[in-house]
Amino acid sequence: MNVVEFCVSNAHHGTDRLIDRLNELPDLETIEYGCLGNCGECYLSPYVMVNGETVVAETADALYDAIQKELGSQDEHRKALDKLLDDL
User: What is the pTM of this model?
Assistant: First the structure.
C-alpha cells in the first residue's frame, strides 16, 4: 500500500483537490496532517510526501504528475530489490 501524505497548510497551492483524484487509484492511501514539518517548502510550493519521500512541483497539476512518476520509480526500485533478494 502506497501512502501520500498532505499538509493541510499547503492547500493554498491547490493540493487539496488532488486528494479525491489520488483516492481513485488502487493501493493508495491519502492522509492529511496539520503539519508535516517542512514549513519552508510548504510556503513556497505544492508538495506531498510519497512513502516518506518529498515530492515537489510548481503547480498542483504538475504535482499530480510528479506523484505518479515517484510511485512508478518506487515500484521499479521495489521490484528490483525483490528480484535481487530472490536471486540470493
Answer: 0.90
* Sequence ranges of the domains in the chain: 2-87
* Backbone phi and psi for residue 35, each to the nearest 5 degrees, phi listed first: -160, 140
CATH topology classification for 2-87: Glutaredoxin (3.40.30)
H/E segment holding residue 77: helix 60-87
Give the model confidence (pLDDT) of 35-82 as tens digits.
999 999 999 999 999 999 999 999 999 999 999 999 999 999 999 999
Give the strands of the sheet with 2-7, arranged side by side. 28-33, 2-7, 47-50, 53-56
Are 7 and 38 contacting, i.e. CB atoms less than 8 angstroms apart?
A: yes
Supply 23's cell numbers. Answer: 483516492
Q: Cα(15)–Cα(84) distance, rounded to whole angstroms?
A: 36
